Every structure is written in structure tokens, then in C-alpha cells.
Amino acid sequence: MSAAPSVSYSITVRLEVPAGGQTVSQLTNAVEAAGGTVTALDVTDPDTNACRSM
What we know:
Blueprint: E1 15-18, H1 23-33, E2 50-53
Antiparallel strand pairs: 1-2
């Protein structure tokens, strides 16, 4: 049985991506496909062209 990763294995990513209906799901799918786990996602108010995530 493997132990769960600790906080020391976490990262914070700030990015700006094109606004769209599937942007968040594509982002989390990419992280999970690379073997990561998304435990929290904050999205600021998007403008018409971009969605800012922190």
C-alpha cells in the first residue's frame, strides 16, 4: 500500500487559458493523464477571451 503524497509534493500553477465551455475539464484531464491529481481549482471571473485559473 503506497502512502498518499504530502504537501511537499504539491505545486501551485497560475495560468491564463482561452475561455470556453470545456477549458476546465480539459485542464484537469491533462493533469490526471500525466499522473497528477487536482485537489482544488479556483477560477477568477473570466473576460470574454480568457479564463484565469489559480
